[in-house]
Design a protein that fits this description.
Keywords: Membrane, Transmembrane, Transmembrane helix
Number of strands: 0
Helix content: 55-70%
InterPro entries: DoxX-like_oxidoreductase (IPR051907)
Protein name: DoxX
Largest sheet: none
Oligomer: single chain
Structural class: mainly alpha
Order of helices and strands: HHHHHHHHH
Radius of gyration: 20 Å
Shape: flat
Number of domains: 1
Number of helices: 9
Length: 196
């Protein structure tokens, strides 16, 4: 009796949330927790004026390539564009474009894979390039859930994994474009298909 009640309640919950809830919730949490963090960080990397997105600041170089920038005496004109300037430029653009795509639910799965890669690279740069200490890095199963690198970024990556696996849900531009281009959507079923 109790087993049937338990299965009935949670089976009903799974059915009514399938196809929309996880994707929408993951994107909402991303927007509420991470979007402005990445947006503000990207804005510190853009040069002056309308075409500032084409000329990252010295701060962008220092954040993305700290050791190379330090070796150049923080004179970014001494750093070759290929490959270093291109890395900084693409990293700056990624910090803007990827979060926007995730929040809008546009090419969500691809953007989420990109976000996972971005966070991994960002973490490696923090550890290797900026030399953050052990307490900031943290560790799994250490009993302290407040480290910036392992604990926080594992949760960031988990949000992206949800979007990669489950998609953005029906409240997304992927779903709208899928309808526009005739991609079959079956919200509320295990066979849901998504454009991205």
């Amino acid at each position: 009796m109790l087993v049937n009640l338990y299965q009935g309640i949670f089976g009903w919950l799974e059915r009514v949330t399938d196809g929309w809830f996880l994707g929408l919730t993951a994107r909402f949490l991303f927007a509420g927790i991470l979007f402005m963090y990445f947006w503000n960080s990207a804005m510190t990397k853009l040069g002056d004026g309308f075409f500032g997105f084409l000329s990252p600041t010295a701060g962008a170089y220092a954040q993305i390539l700290p050791q190379i920038t330090e070796a150049a005496g923080y004179d970014v004109s001494q750093i070759p564009f290929l490959p270093y300037g291109l890395i900084v430029l693409l990293g700056t653009w990624a910090e803007i474009v990827i979060p926007v795509l995730i929040v809008l639910g546009l090419f969500t799965r691809a953007a989420s894979v990109g976000f996972i890669g971005f966070v991994i690279v960002m973490s490696v740069v923090d550890v290797v390039g900026h030399g953050v200490a052990g307490a900031t890095i943290g560790a799994f199963f250490d009993g302290n859930p407040s480290s910036v690198i392992v604990d926080q970024r594992a949760l960031w990556i988990f949000l992206a994994i949800v979007l990669v696996v489950r998609g953005p849900g029906v409240f997304s531009l992927d779903w709208v474009l899928g309808k526009w281009f005739g991609v079959q959507h079956e919200a509320g079923t295990k066979d849901s298909k998504s454009l991205a």
